[in-house]
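Q: My labmate handed me this sequence with no annotations at all. I'd like to see what the chain might look like in three dimensions before we decide whether it's worth expressing. Could you predict it?
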Amino acid sequence: MEGGAPELVNLDVIAQAGGATRAIDRTFPVTVTDGILDVVFSSTVSRV
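A: Here is what I predict for the chain of 48 residues:
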């Protein structure tokens, strides 16, 4: 969240979804005080 700690750290989307062609969703309560909700995604690829 803006100015706060990341909510999801080391999330393995495929493992959480149960497969590469499945989706997951997460809900987070937020308070928007300036009328703009900023969402930032970053990715890391780990090939084991």
